[in-house]
Amino acid sequence: MESNIMASVWFIAGTNNSSKAGLWGGTVSSLELKLNITQDMDGHVYTCQSTNEMLQRSINVAVNLPVLYEPRFQTPAETVVHGVAGEPLTVALVATGNPSSIAYTWTKNGQTIASTGSSGEPRIVSEGPILNITKLERTDAGVYTCEAVNSQGSAMINITLQVKCK
């Protein structure tokens, strides 16, 4: 009677990814898990469980899989934004990435837009992925670019602002 008959199973995000039968009966006692990694797999938990039915014992090890990837902007509802001269305007974007520490830079015609906390009270300021214009002017119309950067890379998105008269 063998006492080291083991059955091993991988669980991926709670779903059983069973082991295969061994060559001479029983099941394979060691498993290798190969994955084609995508950013959607970030944070998934992979659990390897081995059971020895003869000893009525099992052991499992769970591993959280962090997947590093460059920022990606969630597609905004509109990439063309309409505003009215004299009114305030806010453009809020969302970018995700891992690591989640993302630095944002807003530009218009190659000129960097001041961030919140800059000296003075600029009329157009950026705060991370948010662009704030306190009082729109017709000359504010144009293409604004937001760049998101983390240690894995960068992403850019263009927002076209059209300003209408009151």
TrEMBL record:
Domain of life of the organism encoding this protein: Eukaryota
Matches recorded under InterPro entries: Ig-like_dom (IPR007110), Ig-like_dom_sf (IPR036179), Ig-like_fold (IPR013783), Ig_sub (IPR003599), Ig_sub2 (IPR003598)
Q: Which Pfam families match?
A: Ig_3
Where in this chain does the record put each Ig-like domain?
Answer: 71-162
Write down the SUPFAM superfamilies for this protein, in alphabetical order.
Immunoglobulin
Q: What is this protein called?
A: Ig-like domain-containing protein
Natural source organism: Anopheles coluzzii (African malaria mosquito)
